[in-house]
Amino acid sequence: MSENIEPMLHGRGLRVARLAWLALAALALTTLAAGVPVRFEELRSVCTPGRCAEYQMSPAGARKLLDLGLSTTAYAAYYAAVELASASVFFATAAVVFWRRSAHWVALFVAFTLVALGATVQSSVAVLTQSASPWH
Length: 136
Known about the structure:
Blueprint: H1 11-44, H2 59-67, H3 72-101, H4 105-121, H5 124-130
Helix pairs in contact: 1-3, 1-4, 1-5, 3-4
């Protein structure tokens, strides 16, 4: 016997799933927005050897940037913008999937996954857990 799995959500289950997605998206966007300035400062500062965060500038790298006529602020702005743009692609795709097909459970799962990936693709979320911010 084969079971017929319903591909669509209905009624209360659909409302709960949509509210859960909206709550996750709001939390992810808020966390991302709070982490961007912290990540920018981390990227802008020069690290001490052996204690560098991901893509943080080492003293030698900072000297090379200065030789090219670029500041660590320009580097941080560029890299933070790239991270933010990549996260935005995940969030925008998730929003379109949610808006167009949120009644389909597979599409809703994809939208959940895209929001989760969008929140973690940028390192600013991880930076919040390691900084001296009021978030922990």
